Each structure stands twice: as structure tokens, then as C-alpha cells.
Amino acid sequence: MAFIPIYDNNPLRNIRHPWVTWGFIAANILIYFLYEGGSFTGEASEASAYGFGLVPALINGDALRPADFPQIPNLLTLISYSFLHADIWHLAGNLVFLWVFADNVEDAVGHFRYFFFYLVCAAAAGYAFVLSDPSSQAPVIGASGAVSGNIAAYLLLYPRVRVWILVFFGIPLRLRVEYVLGFWIAIQVLSAFGSDTGDIAWWAHLGGLAAGALLILVLRLPGVPLFAKALPDDHPLFRRDPHRPQPASVPSIPPPDRNLPPPPTEPGGPWQ
User: Residue 214 CB: number of other CB atoms within 10 A?
Assistant: First the structure.
């Protein structure tokens, strides 16, 4: 991973909490530890990947799922694969992107529409990989296709927002999202068209990017613009950080009471 996003300083505008985003994050964690048998040090079970992972040859009817694996409809694996991960680093790499960027996408489309948005991005990403390698019998797993959809939507919504990232083994940098996510997208494109794609389903990432970019155009709430300007740090929408030093308050001086009688005048004062 070229960088790790840690904080985007982009407040929510239309919802109080990103419940659906948190739900997807929780679902991925629970499935990894409880169903896949994953741990912090080892890999998840291979049976879970073949049981609910996306296998292009199964989608196209060129192969049959072994009888000792769960027999679910093959088309359903276009969604189920996105909730499985190979190991803790695979899981964490996807969830950190969801944690930083997905809440603002949910804020822009609303809870119900975001639920639809996430699943469609995952399915579109999976089918893009099926088209890229239709005869493959290796299972594809991971939420990166849905993550890619969120990245595309976020980039169209808030390109000027600044995000904190970690690069080069932990060096923090604060850069505009259009540079950070634009660099990430460039890596996906170059890798997908490269001669050696390795073990990463790059075309699933591109499919998720395309789906996210198209869906955000039609699903965003009324009044939510594209390419919004970044809010200043002192905007009222920002929640106060209790650990951030606050400027000292200046006591207000009440205006003079204009109904008071004038001071008495004494003859023979020094002004005469």
C-alpha cells in the first residue's frame, strides 16, 4: 500500500452518524473472525474463500462448485466475496479506507441509498473482474471493489478537502484529496493494464471506481454539489476537538444603559 489515510477533517452535513458505514465495517470484522476463522497472525480458512468467494468460471458456468463447499447461487457471490478477507492486513487495509472516506459518501446520499450504493459497487467490481478473466477458477475476495466505489464518489464530491496520510513507514503528510486519491487511481489503472497483475484483482478496482463515479451522479441528495469547496477549519460544522487548544474567550462588555440620567452638574467646577 502506497499510503495509509488516517483523517480527512471533513464534517458530516446531512446525517448525525454514518450507521450504514459502521455496519459494513462491523460485518467485515465479524465475518473475518467468526466465520473465516481469521486471526491477528494467521490467514483465514481457504474453505471460506471457495465457499463464498467470487470464482469467474462458476459465474460463467464453466465449472461446478465442489460438493463439500457451501452451495449458494453463483450470482450471490458477486456480493458475498466482498465480505471475506485473506488475513488481518487485507482486512485492515480495506477498512481504514472505509473509515476515512465512506462516512462522507453516506452523508451525501443518505443511509438507505448508501446501502444500495455499497452493494452495487461491490457487485460491479466483481463482475468487472469476471469479464477480465472469465475462465479463472481462483476465488476473489475482499472489500476493495466497494472501497474503490467510495473513493471515486468521494473524489467527485470533495476533491479540495485535505487529508492526513502516512507515507514512507509512518511519515504524516496533509495533502488535498485530489492528489492523494488521484495517485491511488493512477496506480490501479497502470497495474490493471500491466503485464504482470500478480495476486491483486486490479480490474475489480476499476469496476468499483466506474460504478461509484456513475452512482454518485444520480444518488446524491438534492442540494449536494459535486466538487465542493473545502470548509475552513473554524466552520461551525466542525466538531470541537476536546484535545485541541481553544482560543481564550474575551468577556463581552455590555452596552451602556442610555436610560440613565445625566450626571449632576456643580457650579464652579474646574472647567469654568
Answer: 16
DSSP string, 123-182: HHHHHHHHHHSTT--S-B--SHHHHHHHHHHHHHH-TT-EEEEEETTTEEEEEEHHHHHH
Q: What are phi and psi of 251, to 5 degrees?
A: -65, 140
Rounded Cα distance between 24 and 114, Å, is: 11
Query: In whole angstroms, what is the distance from residue 125 CA to residue 146 CA?
Result: 7
**Could you tell me which residue, 71 or 243, shows the higher pLDDT?**
71
**Pair 119, 139: CB distance under 8 Å:** no
Mean pLDDT rounded to a whole number for the chain: 86
Query: What pLDDT, in 10s, does the model give residues 230-240?
Result: 776 666 766 54
Give residue 39's pLDDT band: very low, low, confident or very high (50, 70, 90).
confident
Q: Which residues contact 191 (CB under 8 A, 6 or more apart)?
A: 197, 200, 202
**Alpha carbon of 259 to those of 72, 255, 256, 263: distances in Å?**
83, 12, 9, 12
Residue 51 burial (10 A CB sphere; 0-12, 13-18, 19+): buried
> Which CATH architecture group holds 19-219?
Up-down Bundle (1.20)
> 153, 179, 221, 165: which is closest to 9 by C-alpha?
165
Question: If you ran DSSP here, which 8-state letter would residue 238 be given?
Answer: S
**C-beta of residue 104 within 8 angstroms of C-beta of residue 158:** yes
The residues spanned by each domain of the chain are 19-219
Cα separation, 211 vs 215, in Å, equals 6
